[in-house]
Design goal:
The complex is a heterodimer of chains A (about 240) and B (about 450).
Chain A (H helix, E strand, L loop, with lengths): L1 E7 L10 H12 L4 E7 L12 E4 L7 H21 L4 E4 L1 H5 L3 E3 L5 E3 L6 E18 L7 E14 L7 E5 L9 E2 L1 E3 L2 E4 L10 H16 L10 H14 L2
Parallel strand pairs in A: 1-2, 1-3, 3-4, 4-12, 5-7
Antiparallel strand pairs in A: 5-6, 7-8, 7-9, 9-10, 11-12
Helix pairs in contact in A: 1-4
Chain B lengths: L1 H20 L7 H9 L3 H6 L3 E6 L4 H14 L4 E3 L7 H10 L11 E5 L5 H8 L3 E4 L7 H4 L2 H13 L5 E5 L3 H4 L1 H4 L4 E6 L26 E7 L2 E5 L12 E10 L2 E8 L2 E7 L4 H16 L4 H10 L6 E5 L6 E4 L4 H12 L5 E6 L19 H4 L5 E7 L3 H10 L7 E3 L3 H9 L5 E5 L1 H15 L7
Parallel strand pairs in B: 1-3, 1-4, 2-3, 4-5, 5-6, 6-9, 13-17, 14-15, 14-17, 15-16
Antiparallel strand pairs in B: 7-8, 9-10, 10-11, 12-13
Classes of the chains: A alpha/beta (about 240), B alpha/beta (about 450).
């Protein structure tokens, strides 16, 4: 068995530790004897998403955003929309998560059109939402408690037909107001938990891997791994956040 | 005004005295309180002092120590903010401790390290003669924001110091862009193509796209991070030819480097008394700064062979049977340089990584996943074991595990006293990699056991 993983825009969307997510995906596959191949699709690359089993899009700095949008609007947007509807698993974080939505409106009212794959939008807030945080995934998304670090000023709101990835236990989440965090639609998982999400949340990593493996090979059971170190880091943050 | 200055200085001195009696450093609080009383105090105290300021993401402290050694060798009457007290409060503390109660300076020169986020406040009052900007890397995101934000901060700060001569790292496309909009006189330093084995493309870059027009940079060579011979194919923005150029790194040893430095075309062989390539950059910047302050480059060059940095920057301790070296890490670029340095260690050793997430460390520890700890895997059995410590030891444990080090070689020890006791029996050399606040505590624990200098000395 093998999963082909696509890391989209690693050249610009690589804010703080995104590489750790790729590492977590590939290590946890290989530890189970499953092959993992990672392809990096930088800006300007014309490779298509067909043939990939899992797509990862990370977060970025505002500075590169314009470069990115130009590239997306050259056809990748339509391709991402089609892939999502087709059930391709995506993990998208922070900027990569916002990007799937309709638009981003800055605090001073400037509007930037995103790719509109999902019915959500983001508005720039006055204050940055920064800190360690925790949320509980919905049952459909595995039900595990996720710990991470968020750092965003954008407030994201989900439109009709979308469910959140989870409910905030400590911290801000999507907007700091409605208690939701992230998005879960078909096999798309979007979250503000940047850098990196997966190493410390092995159960969630396995949810993603299972989704990708099932889509490719049908029903599959993931062999258990020795997650003591990962869970120790996870539980320690839970204790600190009192969740 | 004069009365206000007098009382502000008096207050600062009193606070310092109390701090020292309580055996605290007192490097920050005296200045902070004095500034409350007299917000423009620093400008009064700095008016008749010739200052050289050092800012940038990495290498500030080491560069400052190099410059200081040159000043000391030259017999200059100078002072410096030694202990990393590099916000306006810390800088003001040093100035008020080196002035009379009426605000007249007791010294002619000052070597001032300045936090890049604090530069806007400091430079306006300090009016430095020479400013070194070492480099700009992505740093603690929660503290500084994006790197372009830090760059804008430094640019604003320098607008308030138009008389300053800037010594800029020519190899850093972010730092170099300061010259585009500032009217200051600029001199350049850098490491030339061919001086060190180099890469053709950056591996992990904090500046992939042109700061002016956002086209992707092309590189003729890369030394580390995003530093090297960059060129924008669209607008032509490119690396400037350095006035102070490292043309050859002849030898890189564990205790230092031998380099050839060309100062405006004249070649000098230079011994740098600290290892690793990033200190080669610091050395070139220090020579530039000392020369631009009006002294012969030879005085800086001689100083480089003898200076000691201390304070966690490749600092040596008599800990364990083969000694220990402490190497502060703060961000991925700096961490990668330290990890690269470890590749040059050709005997078995023990590594200790202490990760904290307090304010000065950055509360977000994600950056450890951007640093190439994978290179530890390539060391094989030379890496005896890795001990993880600090408030976020568990996160570091996971990082080391995913870097490919098997669990049997990873240990956790959060109690610094116990850690130091254990390391005392270590047969092989020990390398300690702490983040900033972890360094302060670990260093104290080490010094209590085996001796060394207090942090404000």
């Amino acid at each position: 068995m093998e999963l082909k993983i696509c890391h989209m825009y690693p050249d610009v969307l690589n804010l703080y530790g995104d590489g750790g997510n790729i590492m977590s995906l590939t290590r946890r596959l290989r530890w189970r004897g499953i092959e993992a191949a990672v392809t990096r699709l930088p800006i300007g690359s014309s490779a298509s998403l067909s043939g990939f089993d899992l797509v990862f899009i990370g977060g970025g700095q505002d500075f590169e955003q314009q470069v990115l949008l130009e590239d997306l609007h050259r056809g990748k947007d339509a391709e991402i929309r089609a892939a999502i509807e087709d059930g391709l698993p995506f993990l998208t974080i922070c900027g990569g998560y916002q990007m799937l939505g309709q638009y981003y409106e800055t605090y001073d009212g400037k509007r930037c059109d995103f790719i509109g794959a999902l019915n959500l939008y983001t508005k720039g807030g006055e204050q940055r939402m920064i800190g360690n945080y925790a949320f509980r995934c919905t049952e459909e998304a595995g039900g595990s408690v996720i710990v991470g670090f968020e750092n965003h000023s954008g407030k994201t709101r989900l439109g009709a037909g979308l469910s959140p990835l989870g409910r905030v236990l400590a911290g801000f989440g999507n907007n700091g107001e409605d208690g939701t965090e992230g998005v879960h639609y078909k096999n798309v998982f979007g979250t503000y938990s940047h850098g990196p999400l997966l190493p410390k949340n092995p159960a969630f990593c396995d949810t993603l891997l299972a989704a990708a493996l099932e889509r490719k090979y049908g029903k599959c059971e993931l062999a258990p791994l020795d997650d003591r170190a990962e869970l120790a880091a996870h539980d320690e943050m839970c204790a600190r956040l009192k969740v | 005004m004069k009365l206000k200055v007098f009382f502000a200085i008096l207050l600062g001195r009193a606070v310092r005295l109390v701090s020292r009696i309580l055996r605290r450093g007192g490097t920050d609080m005296p200045g902070r309180l004095a500034l409350k009383l007299c917000p423009e105090l620093l400008s009064v105290l700095a008016r008749d002092v010739k200052s050289v300021a050092i800012t940038g993401t990495n290498g500030k402290t080491t560069s400052a120590r190099m410059i200081e050694q040159a000043f000391s060798d030259l017999g200059l009457n100078y002072f410096a903010n030694r202990s990393g007290a590099n916000l306006i409060s810390g800088v003001t503390t040093e100035f008020l401790m080196n002035a009379t109660l009426t605000g007249r300076p007791k010294k002619d020169y000052a070597v001032i390290e300045c936090d890049e986020a604090a530069a806007t406040k400091v430079f306006r009052q300090l009016k430095p003669r020479v400013v070194v900007v070492t480099n700009l890397f992505r740093d603690q995101l929660d503290r500084y924001g994006e790197v372009t934000h830090t760059l804008a901060n430094i640019r604003r700060a320098l607008q308030d110091a138009p008389e300053a001569t800037l010594c800029l790292n020519a190899d850093c496309s972010l730092t170099s862009s300061l010259a585009l909009e500032l009217k200051n006189r600029v001199v350049w330093y850098g490491v030339n193509e061919g001086a060190v084995p180099s890469r053709a493309k950056p591996v992990l870059s904090d500046a992939t796209h042109c700061i002016r027009c956002q086209a992707e940079y092309e590189y003729s060579y890369v030394t580390y991070g995003h530093l090297g011979g960059f060129r924008c194919p669209r607008c032509g923005y490119s690396r400037r030819t350095p006035d102070y150029a490292v043309t050859d790194v002849v030898a890189q040893r564990l205790d230092g480097s031998e380099i050839v430095l060309s100062v405006r075309g004249e070649k000098h062989t230079v011994d740098v008394n600290l290892p690793a390539l990033y200190n080669v950059y610091n050395a070139a910047g220090a020579v530039a700064a000392v020369t631009e302050m009006g002294f012969a480059p030879e005085s800086a060059i001689r100083a480089l062979a003898s200076f000691h940095c201390g304070f966690g920057r490749m600092e040596e301790f008599r800990l364990g049977k083969a000694g220990a070296r402490m190497m502060l890490v703060k961000n991925p670029a700096g961490c990668d340089q330290v990890l690269e340095f470890l590749q040059e260690v050709h005997e078995p050793f023990t590594l200790v990584v202490c990760l904290n997430d307090r304010g000065a460390d950055g509360r977000d520890v994600s950056w450890i996943w951007d640093a190439s700890f994978e290179s530890l895997g390539a060391l094989g059995s030379r890496l005896r074991r890795v001990i993880v410590s600090g408030d976020r030891a568990a996160d570091m444990h996971v990082r080391i595990k995913y870097a490919g080090i098997e669990e049997a070689r990873i240990e956790e020890q959060r109690d610094y006293e116990a850690l130091v006791r254990e390391l005392e029996g270590e047969e092989v050399p020990v390398f300690l990699m702490p983040t900033y606040t972890a360094m302060l505590e670990l260093r104290q624990a080490v010094i209590r056991r085996v001796g060394g200098a207090e942090f404000w000395e």
